[in-house]
Amino acid sequence: SQRMQIDSFPQWKWFVFFCFSWLNPLLQLGQKHRLEKGDMYSVLPEDRSETLGEELQRCWNEEVKKASKELWKPQLSRVLIKCYGKSYALAGLFEFFLEAIKVIQPLLLGKIILFFENYHPDDQRSLCMAYVYAAAMSISTFGLTILQHLYYYHVQRTGMRIRVAMCHMIYRKALGLSTESIGRTTTGQIVNLLSNDVNHFDEITLRLHYLWAGPLQAMVIIVFLWYEIGPSCLAGVATIAVMMPIQTWFGKLFGIFRSKTAVLTDSRIRIMNEVVSGIRIIKMYVWEKWFSALVTEVRKKEISRILKSSYLRGLNMASFFASSKLIIFVTFTVYTLLGNTMTASQVFVTMSLYGTIKVTLTLFFPLAIEKLSETVVSIRRIKNFLLLEEIERKNIMLPLAEKGGNSIEIEKLTCYWDKSLDAPSLQNVSITAKSHQLLTVIGPVGAGKSSLLSAILGELPRDTGTLKVKGQLTYASQQPWVFPGTIRSNILFGRELNPKKYEQVLRACALKKDLEMFPDGDLTLIGDRGATLSGGQKARVNLARAVYEDADIYLLDDPLSAVDAEVGKHLFDKCICGLLKNKCRILVTHQLRHLREVDQILVLKEGQIMVQGSYSELQSSDLDMVSLLRRDEEQEQLSPFADPEKLSLQSRWTNDSHSSHCFLNCPLPPESTYTEHLPVCIFTKEIEHCYFYKIVLFYLHFYMVPWYINKSLVIFHGLVRSAQTLHNSMFSAVLHTPVSFFDVNPIGRILNRFSKDVSQMDSVLPITFVDFYQLFLQNVGVIAVAASVIPLILIPVVPLLLIFLYLRSLYLRTSRDIKRLESTTRSPVLSHLSSSLNGLSTIRASRSEEKLKKDFDAHQDLHSEAWFLFLMTSRWFALRLDSICSIFITLTAFGLILLRDGLVAGEVGLVLTYAVTLMGNFQWTVRQSAEVENMMTSVERVVEYTELKNEGPWETQQHPPSDWLSQGMITFDRVNFFYDTDGPPVLKEISATFHAKEKVGIVGRTGAWKSSLVSAIFRLAEPQGKIYIDGVVTSEIGLHDLRQKMSIIPQDPVLFTDSVRKNLDPFNQHTDEDLWKALEEVQLKSVVEELPGKLEAVLAESGSNFSVGQRQLVCLARAILRKNRILIIDEATANVDPRTDELIQKTIRDKFKECTVITIAHRLNTIIDSDRIFVLESGTIQEFDHPFTLLQNKEGALYRMVQQMGQAESASLLESARQVAAYANQIKLNLKCPGVQG
């Protein structure tokens, strides 16, 4: 639909604007159909994210520059005051007049009551003055309504502008963070900054003016109180003075608890992020219970802090509602003890003035301090983030005008990821790479290969030496980065489509055949984490993005490891040496078979160049090519950030951040309330005879106050405990749900339930609900009391109630849609940040930061449209309710004077006071009820996740025999496997048997669904057909019984933010000796020994202080410790050099010789010595036999794959297969004839 323009509304017709009549078309539209994004008004030009963000960024840069010159710390709060102080001060004028009217109204009320006290039918002058006072009362009420909404409009818009500008700055900073800075922050912290911390700006702007308005108003009111009741007023003021420090202290405590809670929330979200990211590994390792215990422990501490905050809130609210009783009791006790006689006008004026000062000083003022405390914490957190170091690229890339030929010149370069560690990541490296040249970098795991590319990219800070890059860089990362969108959008990455070039890139990157398999071709949506693509397909899309970019220098970090030999040869020949043949290319690889065809070879070890030159030069030297890659245990140094993908933070989160930063969260009474609930006995005709009144007051203050406090604490406790129960149920349901759920739901969407929705249930919903129900009960009591004195008051209350209910239904329909839109438009903001951080090195290499900033700003602007409409529809609703209240008060005031005969002062005071109190409270109650209903969407979203479909039970009554899986035989009986029940099977009619202790290799082209065979064995989705393991049907036993008996080394190595010990043995089932032995067997002992804390050293997020190859070795160590009869290796050695691969294979042969080993690999030399080889193509069995037998068939699939390796290597593989066959035949002969010696 046609987008409506906010900037077209009549700015100068302020009355029309501030009546929010421009929202009427939208509200009418909301009655007709569900609102969509196209129905929203476009954002005002001055509220655009780019405009606001750049202005605040400019001020912040000036502050940082000035602070560095004058040697003091930059202050973000000073920058905010500079940018927004003037406009916010203007809103303070509205607040000043607003509070002035609240002081004047009780005096007008007193004058009207005084007229009835001294009423004489013939006194026309007094009657005229009464009408004047009634008119003044009416005008002040309408003025209060208008000024109130002018004030709220300005401060809420200011809060929104600060938040939007701050988000822009945080995103801009995230794109520029240096590697060291990324190591000092966490994913959970950045999630919290954008989903929780910035929201405090929406809240503080509402309350900050009360810090000066409250004390000022108090001084004026004390003067009026002295005039009314003399020195007795000091007793009540003293009571307020005693309560103020207590509630101010509460406010400071809120800030302390908020700070402590934020740390725990960061930790919980980080763990949840790791759980969702690594859910496949967690399920296959049967680690659900360990992670459940981790989350439960953190959540328990978090709830403890939240409960303390809630108890404080409860005490705060209880003291607010009870304070009026206490103040009145103390004041009038002193007043009567001094021998004074109370009159109706004195009572009502005094109590109204006390009501005003009490609301301001005991609620709004402490609330302002509370919000200020919380905001100061958030500002400090954001400031610390903004002060993190950014990446420097000084004198690295020369401008185009200075290009003398595309090349890279490095001379005596030394770099450190972390200077606190002795070993440099690169040491004394000198390289020259010229145009049209292919430079290949090889070396063992942790040698510094990826660090070299990072240094060229400018990601790794230089210590000494020079580095010059002439020309435009592009980069393909080792771990493929894909973002939510189509395959085409991932390749184009914002560039224009050139059909001819695009087609060439698809062919060169071997993607044509894969795209033909997808129903939508290159327009297929790949979702978060590239869930619909195989590892090889993601790697080729990642490569295609780099190749499509028209750059001068291409940095390719091991793009061949994730693909099979045939596709790898195609990529090398057609892409790296074909389409890119006229470009400068630096290729990191472990595929030594391609070395003959490269121009220059660079061998790295421990960050130093061991040798460089052409293949022939290296052959003629004394150095053996394989020995160059040898990994010496005693000298191997841990490269703290060996891979540039550490920059990606290895995480995705929030999110679909649901819900808003609702400003209606505070326990606020209606803004126009200035009176309190008065004991009925005050309004007897003879007020001076009030002995009964004193007894009632005594009862109220010494019984009701503790009851108020206990009631609030009990309710808060119950609501927070309910939130805890719901969170635990949701987490349990997420752990029990099948893996397919995580493939179709982005991480941000899942984490949003655990961050924003849980936050709503923990903190916001309880206080709003308590406020609503207390006000509701209060209103019922007020109506009952008023009706008992003047039954006619029910006549206007009934139609008023009907009007309120109509307006509420009208508002709720539209506000629900707008709230939904606010949630859905906030999701892309956080998802965009998440995706950007994951591909940070790729983004910076292609200089795409500006484009991504614009995309982020566009997402923010869309969210601002929904948020601004959410604020304005709330104002529309409140303005109409307050206007009806004002009309009701006007009718009441004039009606009492018109019907003056027979009325006494006490009754008039009751009706007028309760008219104001009822209407103010009632409109607030209606708004709070709407808020509770809106906030219940968070509860609904959490409940929705508690009802997720479960995978099979973890344990069943039918346990396998105690000696089960002692052999390791696996039989597939007509197995079909589906990822989507409505889609086609990815594995089709698989029937095969893997014998006990047999070593089976599984090969096939990238995208042949090899890893799906692993998913079927582990029952990550339920296969059709039967899989037998040692005679037991896997579908008939519990998932934990099945999975804990098998070990896996996965394709994507997953480490968690915990100690090395916990990553190896989370359940403490093994001794230190076992752990060190396992690390030694996978060549990691020396690496771990150098870590501070050794086994207790805590790994960085996602294990990013290990290289990818080292992470794979940790996974191998896990498998060695588990000592299971079945081991599955899924591309586990793709990211390690051949020498390390050889060592790993030797370890596997030694340690798992009594086990059934299933190996999925692209390196044919890894599986050529298998007992049998299983060849898959498009989910069906092509061949399954001994390797030598398969290689005899020149029409066979395996033979074709071996021939792709080149003549020398294919001959070597054939010879290896022949030796394995001869050895197997010899074993068989020995078994048949025991006396024969081989």
UniProtKB/TrEMBL annotation:
Obligatory cofactor(s): Mg(2+)
Gene (UniProt): ABCC4
Pfam families linked to this entry: ABC_membrane, ABC_tran
Domain ABC transporter: 408-631, 970-1203
The keyword Signal is annotated on this UniProt entry: yes
Catalysed reactions listed for this entry: an S-substituted glutathione(in) + ATP + H2O = an S-substituted glutathione(out) + ADP + phosphate + H(+); prostaglandin E1(in) + ATP + H2O = prostaglandin E1(out) + ADP + phosphate + H(+); 3',5'-cyclic AMP(in) + ATP + H2O = 3',5'-cyclic AMP(out) + ADP + phosphate + H(+); glycodeoxycholate(in) + glutathione(in) + ATP + H2O = glycodeoxycholate(out) + glutathione(out) + ADP + phosphate + H(+)
Protein name as annotated: Multidrug resistance-associated protein 4
Signal peptide annotation: 1-30
Segments traversing the membrane: 88-110, 130-153, 210-227, 233-250, 315-335, 347-369, 691-709, 780-807, 877-898
GO biological process: lipid transport
UniProt topology in membrane: Multi-pass membrane protein
UniProt xrefs under InterPro entries: AAA+_ATPase, ABC1_TM_dom, ABC1_TM_sf, ABC_transporter-like_ATP-bd, ABC_transporter-like_CS, ABC_transporter_C-like, ABCC4_TMD1, P-loop_NTPase
Organism from which the protein derives: Astatotilapia calliptera
Main location class: membrane
Lineage: Eukaryota, Metazoa, Chordata, Craniata, Vertebrata
An annotated Gene Ontology molecular function: ATP binding
